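Entry 14. Two folds queued back to back today. First construct below, sequence then structure tokens.
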Amino acid sequence: MPRIIASLAVYLLLSACAFSTPFSGPGYGPAGPPDSVVVGITHITLKDDGALRDKFWDYVAEVDQQLEAAPGFIKGSKRRELLGDEAWTATVWRDGKSLAAFISSGAHKRAMKGAYDTFDDARFARLTLDREAFQENWDNILAMLEANARAYYE
């Protein structure tokens, strides 16, 4: 019995743990840093189905391949729960026009249509911030999301 309780405790602890990738991307480019940046934050609650989760992460990989070359993309990071069903993205853009163009084209557009059945809930926030005010800190990013989140399909 103590072994079961210990295993359950470890599972509960790990299910609340999340890990994130470091922020990376092409940077500001030859035009140099803008005065302000646009930050796109997404939160997805995945369905409890292994095949659908795999499908979702396949779409994420396709989007990642397109992201690096997207005009206006500066940097981004992904975060996910270790054993849970939640995933987040944060991307930083030169301007809102660049972010909007990326969302409505190529792999991202296909992912939005094809991955719809892989999640139960999706929220996003889009903020324009002074470049110096943006912090590559997931606690800060999650707070911005909570304060500004909208459902994808309202």
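Second construct, same run, same settings:
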Amino acid sequence: MTKQFNRLAPLIMRALVRELAVHKYAAAAVVGNLAHETAGFTLMQEVKPVVAGSRGGYGWAQWTGPRRKQFEAWCAARGLKPSSYEGNLGFLLHELRGSERAALRMLEHSGADLHALTVAFEKLFERAGVPAHAARVRWAKRALALYERSGDANSKPLADSRTVKGAGAGGIGAIAMGGAAYQAGKDGIALATDVKDTVGEAAGLLSWLTWEAAAIGAGLLTIGGLAVVLYARWDDAGRPLFWRNEKDLADVEA
């Protein structure tokens, strides 16, 4: 297995689970097929095109013929390179939601039989000249293992995640605290001004302490709100451990 596969397999699976709302076994079946087509995401261009003299397949799914032209046009229209992660993932989702909807319906309604899902995705989506189902299933099993080791994702689109809710709550709290501190400051200064003839020196001290407390309170609330936001997004993304290294994600045998 390759470092490229170790890095991309969990990443792509999380994206598929999030964007298509499919089971992790379905996502692993897709990644297993893509990995087989690209030798673990190391070969974007088909090495020996089946059709002599043709450009052959390109990209994660080795899109060929009209599908390759559509892939390249889709990327060009969005300013993406056909070799990029964004281009490949974007077009994969585009096909599954459109012209290859039959494959997505299968993924949505099938069970947790990884072997059956992998074979079905090859037949419905890849339609390969050489099926090589056993190899595809091995890649799928490895993808699933890496995914589970790196954090079984329950990731959600940003708009549906608790990140936005946490940010909103933190922002409202900060505004409320800021308003309260501001009013307290005004009240304190007004009171001090009223008695400035007898406690002139105290007025200055009271004003300083009021605004100092307001500043500290607002700062602490802002930090707390940011902590809520960061935790919420991390939790929504499946609590990935960013400090894992390549040794932690060593090759996983089927």
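Quick look at the second one. The chain has two domains: 3-155, 159-236. The domain at 3-155 is CATH 1.10.530.10 (Lysozyme).
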